[in-house]
Amino acid sequence: MKPSFYRLRNGIKNYAWGSRTALNTLFGVPNPDEQPQAEMWMGAHPAGCSEIETGSDSVSLLDAIAQSPESVLGARAMDRFGQLPYLLKILAAETALSIQVHPDKRQAEEGYAQQGNRVGEDYNDANHKPELVYAITPFMAMNGFRPFQEIVNHFLRLNAPELMPALAEFRGNLTGEGFKHFFVSLMQLTQREKENVLTQLQACLDSGGFTYLQSFITRLMRDYPGDIGILAPLFLHCITLAPGEAMFLRAGTLHAYVHGTAVEVMACSDNVLRAGLTPKKINLPELVKCTVFRETQEQELRLLPDDTGTEQHYSVPVEDFCFSVIGNCQQKRVDVDSAQILLVLSGITTLRDTNGDEITLFAGQSVFIPALTASYSIIQNEFSCLVQC
Predict the structure, then answer these.
(1) What three-state secondary structure class fits 73?
(2) How far is residue 179's CA from residue 146's CA, in Å, rounded to a whole number?
Protein backbone atom coordinates (compact mmCIF):
# COMPACT_ATOMS: atom_id res chain seq x y z
CA MET A 1 0.00 0.00 0.00
CA LYS A 2 1.50 3.36 -1.05
CA PRO A 3 -1.13 6.12 -0.94
CA SER A 4 -1.75 7.79 2.41
CA PHE A 5 -5.56 7.62 2.26
CA TYR A 6 -8.01 4.98 1.06
CA ARG A 7 -11.73 5.60 0.81
CA LEU A 8 -13.73 2.84 2.45
CA ARG A 9 -16.73 1.05 0.97
CA ASN A 10 -18.70 -0.24 3.91
CA GLY A 11 -21.45 -2.82 4.11
CA ILE A 12 -24.85 -2.30 5.73
CA LYS A 13 -26.39 -4.88 8.07
CA ASN A 14 -30.15 -5.12 7.56
CA TYR A 15 -31.17 -6.45 10.97
CA ALA A 16 -34.85 -6.29 11.90
CA TRP A 17 -34.31 -3.76 14.70
CA GLY A 18 -32.68 -1.21 12.37
CA SER A 19 -34.05 2.14 11.27
CA ARG A 20 -35.35 2.57 7.72
CA THR A 21 -34.59 6.30 7.71
CA ALA A 22 -31.70 7.23 10.05
CA LEU A 23 -28.68 6.36 7.89
CA ASN A 24 -30.32 7.92 4.84
CA THR A 25 -31.36 11.10 6.65
CA LEU A 26 -28.12 11.65 8.57
CA PHE A 27 -25.55 10.33 6.11
CA GLY A 28 -27.21 9.99 2.71
CA VAL A 29 -26.96 6.20 2.65
CA PRO A 30 -29.28 4.96 -0.14
CA ASN A 31 -32.18 2.76 0.90
CA PRO A 32 -34.33 2.31 -2.20
CA ASP A 33 -36.04 -0.82 -0.85
CA GLU A 34 -36.75 0.77 2.54
CA GLN A 35 -34.93 -1.98 4.42
CA PRO A 36 -34.17 -1.73 8.16
CA GLN A 37 -30.58 -0.44 8.03
CA ALA A 38 -29.17 -1.36 11.43
CA GLU A 39 -25.39 -1.04 11.20
CA MET A 40 -22.64 0.20 8.91
CA TRP A 41 -19.41 -1.73 9.58
CA MET A 42 -15.95 -0.20 9.07
CA GLY A 43 -13.05 -2.57 9.59
CA ALA A 44 -11.67 -5.97 8.71
CA HIS A 45 -13.91 -8.44 10.53
CA PRO A 46 -14.68 -11.43 8.28
CA ALA A 47 -18.42 -11.08 9.00
CA GLY A 48 -18.46 -7.60 7.46
CA CYS A 49 -15.17 -6.51 5.94
CA SER A 50 -14.82 -3.08 4.34
CA GLU A 51 -13.30 -2.60 0.90
CA ILE A 52 -10.72 0.06 0.12
CA GLU A 53 -10.76 1.97 -3.13
CA THR A 54 -7.60 1.63 -5.20
CA GLY A 55 -8.09 3.83 -8.24
CA SER A 56 -11.05 2.53 -10.21
CA ASP A 57 -10.96 -0.82 -8.40
CA SER A 58 -11.41 -2.00 -4.82
CA VAL A 59 -9.97 -4.72 -2.61
CA SER A 60 -11.06 -6.09 0.75
CA LEU A 61 -9.33 -4.53 3.71
CA LEU A 62 -8.47 -8.03 4.97
CA ASP A 63 -6.61 -8.78 1.74
CA ALA A 64 -4.82 -5.42 1.79
CA ILE A 65 -3.59 -6.04 5.33
CA ALA A 66 -2.48 -9.58 4.44
CA GLN A 67 -0.33 -8.27 1.58
CA SER A 68 1.76 -5.99 3.83
CA PRO A 69 0.67 -6.39 7.47
CA GLU A 70 3.39 -4.45 9.28
CA SER A 71 3.37 -1.42 6.99
CA VAL A 72 -0.43 -1.27 7.11
CA LEU A 73 -1.01 -2.03 10.80
CA GLY A 74 2.23 -0.68 12.26
CA ALA A 75 4.85 -2.69 14.12
CA ARG A 76 3.26 -2.29 17.56
CA ALA A 77 -0.22 -3.36 16.42
CA MET A 78 1.22 -6.20 14.36
CA ASP A 79 3.20 -7.54 17.32
CA ARG A 80 0.37 -7.11 19.82
CA PHE A 81 -2.66 -8.18 17.75
CA GLY A 82 -1.63 -9.51 14.34
CA GLN A 83 -4.76 -7.94 12.84
CA LEU A 84 -6.71 -4.68 12.74
CA PRO A 85 -7.78 -4.85 16.38
CA TYR A 86 -10.93 -2.74 16.27
CA LEU A 87 -14.25 -2.50 14.47
CA LEU A 88 -16.08 0.81 13.94
CA LYS A 89 -19.82 1.01 13.33
CA ILE A 90 -22.66 3.44 12.89
CA LEU A 91 -25.61 1.87 14.73
CA ALA A 92 -29.20 2.98 14.03
CA ALA A 93 -31.79 1.33 16.29
CA GLU A 94 -35.51 1.76 15.69
CA THR A 95 -36.35 -0.98 18.19
CA ALA A 96 -34.22 -2.43 20.97
CA LEU A 97 -31.33 -4.76 20.32
CA SER A 98 -31.22 -7.95 22.37
CA ILE A 99 -30.13 -7.71 25.99
CA GLN A 100 -26.64 -9.10 25.77
CA VAL A 101 -23.22 -9.58 27.25
CA HIS A 102 -19.83 -10.01 25.59
CA PRO A 103 -17.19 -12.47 26.80
CA ASP A 104 -13.71 -11.56 27.94
CA LYS A 105 -10.70 -12.77 25.97
CA ARG A 106 -10.25 -16.06 27.83
CA GLN A 107 -13.95 -16.92 27.66
CA ALA A 108 -14.05 -16.13 23.94
CA GLU A 109 -11.02 -18.29 23.20
CA GLU A 110 -12.43 -21.20 25.19
CA GLY A 111 -15.95 -20.89 23.81
CA TYR A 112 -14.80 -20.59 20.21
CA ALA A 113 -12.47 -23.58 20.60
CA GLN A 114 -15.29 -25.66 22.07
CA GLN A 115 -17.32 -24.91 18.94
CA GLY A 116 -14.46 -26.30 16.88
CA ASN A 117 -13.40 -22.81 15.71
CA ARG A 118 -16.64 -22.49 13.78
CA VAL A 119 -18.97 -19.51 13.70
CA GLY A 120 -21.91 -20.33 15.96
CA GLU A 121 -24.86 -18.83 17.79
CA ASP A 122 -22.74 -17.91 20.81
CA TYR A 123 -19.13 -17.44 19.67
CA ASN A 124 -18.24 -16.08 16.24
CA ASP A 125 -14.53 -15.56 16.93
CA ALA A 126 -11.92 -15.90 19.68
CA ASN A 127 -11.78 -12.25 20.73
CA HIS A 128 -13.22 -10.18 23.55
CA LYS A 129 -15.58 -7.29 22.81
CA PRO A 130 -15.25 -4.24 25.04
CA GLU A 131 -17.00 -1.33 23.36
CA LEU A 132 -17.62 2.40 23.41
CA VAL A 133 -20.84 4.04 22.24
CA TYR A 134 -20.99 7.72 21.26
CA ALA A 135 -24.42 9.25 20.71
CA ILE A 136 -25.20 11.02 17.43
CA THR A 137 -28.90 11.48 18.29
CA PRO A 138 -30.53 11.06 21.72
CA PHE A 139 -29.66 7.45 22.44
CA MET A 140 -31.62 5.22 24.83
CA ALA A 141 -29.68 2.37 26.41
CA MET A 142 -29.72 -0.01 29.36
CA ASN A 143 -26.31 -0.66 30.86
CA GLY A 144 -24.97 -2.26 34.05
CA PHE A 145 -26.77 -3.57 37.11
CA ARG A 146 -28.43 -1.12 39.45
CA PRO A 147 -27.44 -1.11 43.15
CA PHE A 148 -28.79 -4.33 44.61
CA GLN A 149 -31.06 -2.65 47.16
CA GLU A 150 -32.60 -0.56 44.37
CA ILE A 151 -33.30 -3.75 42.40
CA VAL A 152 -34.99 -5.27 45.45
CA ASN A 153 -37.12 -2.15 45.89
CA HIS A 154 -38.23 -2.30 42.26
CA PHE A 155 -39.34 -5.91 42.53
CA LEU A 156 -41.05 -5.31 45.86
CA ARG A 157 -43.04 -2.57 44.13
CA LEU A 158 -43.85 -4.97 41.30
CA ASN A 159 -45.17 -7.41 43.93
CA ALA A 160 -45.45 -10.42 41.61
CA PRO A 161 -46.20 -13.55 43.72
CA GLU A 162 -44.19 -15.73 41.30
CA LEU A 163 -41.00 -13.84 42.21
CA MET A 164 -41.41 -13.49 45.98
CA PRO A 165 -39.55 -16.65 47.10
CA ALA A 166 -36.51 -15.80 44.94
CA LEU A 167 -36.73 -12.14 45.98
CA ALA A 168 -36.73 -13.11 49.66
CA GLU A 169 -33.53 -15.10 49.14
CA PHE A 170 -31.92 -12.15 47.35
CA ARG A 171 -32.93 -9.75 50.15
CA GLY A 172 -31.13 -12.03 52.56
CA ASN A 173 -27.96 -12.05 50.45
CA LEU A 174 -27.42 -8.66 48.80
CA THR A 175 -24.24 -9.72 47.01
CA GLY A 176 -23.26 -10.50 43.44
CA GLU A 177 -23.82 -14.18 44.12
CA GLY A 178 -27.24 -13.47 45.61
CA PHE A 179 -28.26 -11.40 42.60
CA LYS A 180 -26.97 -14.07 40.20
CA HIS A 181 -29.37 -16.60 41.74
CA PHE A 182 -32.24 -14.11 41.49
CA PHE A 183 -31.38 -13.32 37.86
CA VAL A 184 -31.32 -17.02 36.97
CA SER A 185 -34.74 -17.45 38.58
CA LEU A 186 -36.11 -14.69 36.33
CA MET A 187 -34.65 -16.37 33.26
CA GLN A 188 -36.18 -19.75 34.25
CA LEU A 189 -39.78 -18.60 34.71
CA THR A 190 -42.30 -20.80 32.95
CA GLN A 191 -44.37 -19.27 30.18
CA ARG A 192 -47.40 -18.96 32.46
CA GLU A 193 -45.32 -17.40 35.25
CA LYS A 194 -43.79 -14.96 32.81
CA GLU A 195 -47.21 -13.93 31.52
CA ASN A 196 -48.46 -13.36 35.08
CA VAL A 197 -45.42 -11.26 36.02
CA LEU A 198 -45.71 -9.09 32.90
CA THR A 199 -49.45 -8.66 33.51
CA GLN A 200 -48.59 -7.43 37.00
CA LEU A 201 -46.02 -5.04 35.52
CA GLN A 202 -48.69 -3.57 33.23
CA ALA A 203 -51.00 -3.15 36.22
CA CYS A 204 -48.25 -1.27 38.05
CA LEU A 205 -47.80 1.08 35.11
CA ASP A 206 -51.57 1.62 34.87
CA SER A 207 -51.71 2.58 38.54
CA GLY A 208 -48.89 5.10 38.23
CA GLY A 209 -45.94 2.97 39.28
CA PHE A 210 -42.53 3.10 37.61
CA THR A 211 -43.30 6.44 35.93
CA TYR A 212 -39.57 7.23 35.67
CA LEU A 213 -39.04 3.97 33.75
CA GLN A 214 -42.20 4.16 31.68
CA SER A 215 -40.61 5.35 28.42
CA PHE A 216 -38.32 2.32 28.44
CA ILE A 217 -40.83 -0.28 29.66
CA THR A 218 -43.65 0.73 27.31
CA ARG A 219 -41.28 0.74 24.32
CA LEU A 220 -40.08 -2.79 25.18
CA MET A 221 -43.66 -4.00 25.73
CA ARG A 222 -44.66 -2.66 22.33
CA ASP A 223 -41.72 -4.13 20.44
CA TYR A 224 -41.22 -7.44 22.30
CA PRO A 225 -44.59 -8.46 23.81
CA GLY A 226 -44.28 -11.35 26.24
CA ASP A 227 -40.47 -11.24 26.38
CA ILE A 228 -38.76 -11.62 29.76
CA GLY A 229 -36.44 -8.77 28.77
CA ILE A 230 -39.28 -6.30 29.46
CA LEU A 231 -38.26 -6.61 33.13
CA ALA A 232 -34.73 -5.37 32.38
CA PRO A 233 -35.35 -1.71 33.31
CA LEU A 234 -36.00 -2.88 36.87
CA PHE A 235 -32.44 -4.19 37.24
CA LEU A 236 -30.40 -2.35 34.56
CA HIS A 237 -29.63 1.37 34.53
CA CYS A 238 -31.77 3.21 31.97
CA ILE A 239 -29.75 5.97 30.37
CA THR A 240 -30.49 8.38 27.53
CA LEU A 241 -27.26 9.81 26.16
CA ALA A 242 -27.50 13.29 24.66
CA PRO A 243 -25.73 13.80 21.32
CA GLY A 244 -22.02 13.97 22.06
CA GLU A 245 -22.17 11.86 25.23
CA ALA A 246 -20.49 8.47 25.47
CA MET A 247 -20.36 5.28 27.53
CA PHE A 248 -17.82 2.47 27.81
CA LEU A 249 -18.92 -1.14 28.28
CA ARG A 250 -16.48 -3.67 29.66
CA ALA A 251 -16.68 -7.34 28.75
CA GLY A 252 -19.14 -9.05 31.10
CA THR A 253 -21.50 -6.05 31.32
CA LEU A 254 -25.15 -6.84 30.59
CA HIS A 255 -26.64 -4.14 28.36
CA ALA A 256 -29.03 -3.32 25.53
CA TYR A 257 -29.27 -0.43 23.11
CA VAL A 258 -32.90 0.64 22.86
CA HIS A 259 -33.35 3.49 20.39
CA GLY A 260 -31.32 6.08 18.50
CA THR A 261 -28.24 6.48 16.31
CA ALA A 262 -24.68 6.26 17.59
CA VAL A 263 -21.09 5.54 16.71
CA GLU A 264 -19.91 2.28 18.21
CA VAL A 265 -16.28 1.19 18.39
CA MET A 266 -15.16 -2.14 19.82
CA ALA A 267 -12.49 -4.79 19.73
CA CYS A 268 -12.67 -6.72 16.46
CA SER A 269 -15.29 -9.25 17.52
CA ASP A 270 -18.88 -10.28 16.88
CA ASN A 271 -19.44 -12.36 20.04
CA VAL A 272 -22.88 -11.97 21.65
CA LEU A 273 -24.58 -13.92 24.44
CA ARG A 274 -28.25 -12.96 24.68
CA ALA A 275 -30.52 -12.56 27.70
CA GLY A 276 -33.82 -11.31 26.25
CA LEU A 277 -35.58 -9.03 23.75
CA THR A 278 -34.85 -11.60 21.06
CA PRO A 279 -36.50 -14.51 19.26
CA LYS A 280 -33.12 -16.24 19.19
CA LYS A 281 -32.06 -19.02 21.53
CA ILE A 282 -30.70 -17.99 24.93
CA ASN A 283 -27.81 -20.09 26.20
CA LEU A 284 -28.33 -19.49 29.92
CA PRO A 285 -25.24 -21.35 31.22
CA GLU A 286 -22.89 -19.43 28.89
CA LEU A 287 -24.71 -16.17 29.59
CA VAL A 288 -24.30 -16.57 33.35
CA LYS A 289 -20.67 -17.67 32.99
CA CYS A 290 -19.78 -14.54 31.00
CA THR A 291 -21.77 -12.00 33.05
CA VAL A 292 -20.16 -10.06 35.88
CA PHE A 293 -22.83 -9.74 38.58
CA ARG A 294 -21.66 -6.46 40.07
CA GLU A 295 -23.79 -3.51 41.10
CA THR A 296 -22.83 -0.17 39.55
CA GLN A 297 -23.59 3.49 40.05
CA GLU A 298 -24.90 5.33 37.00
CA GLN A 299 -22.15 7.94 37.14
CA GLU A 300 -19.60 5.15 36.63
CA LEU A 301 -21.04 4.40 33.21
CA ARG A 302 -20.71 7.72 31.41
CA LEU A 303 -17.36 8.43 29.80
CA LEU A 304 -16.01 11.98 29.97
CA PRO A 305 -13.40 13.10 27.43
CA ASP A 306 -10.16 14.97 27.72
CA ASP A 307 -11.00 18.14 25.76
CA THR A 308 -8.26 20.11 24.01
CA GLY A 309 -10.65 22.51 22.29
CA THR A 310 -10.51 20.95 18.83
CA GLU A 311 -10.32 17.31 19.94
CA GLN A 312 -12.12 15.27 22.56
CA HIS A 313 -10.18 12.13 23.46
CA TYR A 314 -12.02 9.32 25.26
CA SER A 315 -9.68 7.18 27.35
CA VAL A 316 -10.67 3.52 27.55
CA PRO A 317 -9.08 0.77 29.68
CA VAL A 318 -8.19 -1.48 26.73
CA GLU A 319 -5.39 -1.49 24.15
CA ASP A 320 -7.55 -2.50 21.18
CA PHE A 321 -8.70 1.00 20.26
CA CYS A 322 -8.50 4.71 20.99
CA PHE A 323 -11.38 7.03 20.12
CA SER A 324 -11.38 10.78 19.51
CA VAL A 325 -13.88 13.27 18.17
CA ILE A 326 -12.41 16.19 16.22
CA GLY A 327 -14.45 19.39 16.04
CA ASN A 328 -14.09 22.50 13.90
CA CYS A 329 -10.42 22.83 13.08
CA GLN A 330 -7.97 23.68 10.35
CA GLN A 331 -4.35 22.65 9.90
CA LYS A 332 -4.38 20.03 12.61
CA ARG A 333 -1.43 17.65 12.35
CA VAL A 334 -2.09 13.98 13.09
CA ASP A 335 0.73 11.51 13.69
CA VAL A 336 0.22 7.91 12.63
CA ASP A 337 1.91 4.90 14.17
CA SER A 338 -0.93 2.42 13.70
CA ALA A 339 -3.74 2.00 11.19
CA GLN A 340 -6.51 4.60 11.54
CA ILE A 341 -10.10 4.97 10.38
CA LEU A 342 -11.59 8.46 10.18
CA LEU A 343 -15.38 8.79 9.86
CA VAL A 344 -17.02 12.12 9.01
CA LEU A 345 -20.05 12.76 11.23
CA SER A 346 -21.16 16.06 9.70
CA GLY A 347 -20.00 18.61 7.17
CA ILE A 348 -16.92 18.24 4.97
CA THR A 349 -13.46 17.02 5.94
CA THR A 350 -10.29 17.35 3.87
CA LEU A 351 -7.03 15.57 4.68
CA ARG A 352 -3.61 16.34 3.18
CA ASP A 353 -0.49 14.19 3.42
CA THR A 354 3.13 15.37 3.50
CA ASN A 355 3.35 15.07 -0.31
CA GLY A 356 0.43 17.44 -0.79
CA ASP A 357 -2.05 14.74 -1.82
CA GLU A 358 -5.56 15.42 -0.57
CA ILE A 359 -8.82 13.58 0.00
CA THR A 360 -12.20 15.18 0.74
CA LEU A 361 -15.00 13.36 2.52
CA PHE A 362 -18.62 14.13 3.36
CA ALA A 363 -20.85 13.08 6.26
CA GLY A 364 -21.08 9.29 6.50
CA GLN A 365 -17.92 8.71 4.45
CA SER A 366 -14.81 7.16 5.93
CA VAL A 367 -11.16 6.72 5.08
CA PHE A 368 -8.53 4.13 6.01
CA ILE A 369 -5.08 5.50 6.84
CA PRO A 370 -2.27 2.91 6.98
CA ALA A 371 0.54 3.19 9.50
CA LEU A 372 3.13 3.94 6.80
CA THR A 373 1.44 7.32 6.24
CA ALA A 374 3.39 8.54 9.32
CA SER A 375 1.58 11.91 9.49
CA TYR A 376 -1.00 14.07 7.73
CA SER A 377 -2.95 17.27 8.27
CA ILE A 378 -6.65 17.94 8.65
CA ILE A 379 -7.03 21.15 6.68
CA GLN A 380 -10.82 21.39 6.87
CA ASN A 381 -13.16 19.67 9.25
CA GLU A 382 -16.56 20.22 10.83
CA PHE A 383 -17.08 17.05 12.86
CA SER A 384 -15.33 13.69 12.55
CA CYS A 385 -14.28 10.78 14.71
CA LEU A 386 -10.93 9.03 14.59
CA VAL A 387 -10.14 5.46 15.70
CA GLN A 388 -6.74 3.85 16.10
CA CYS A 389 -5.05 1.44 18.49
Answers:
(1) helix
(2) 11
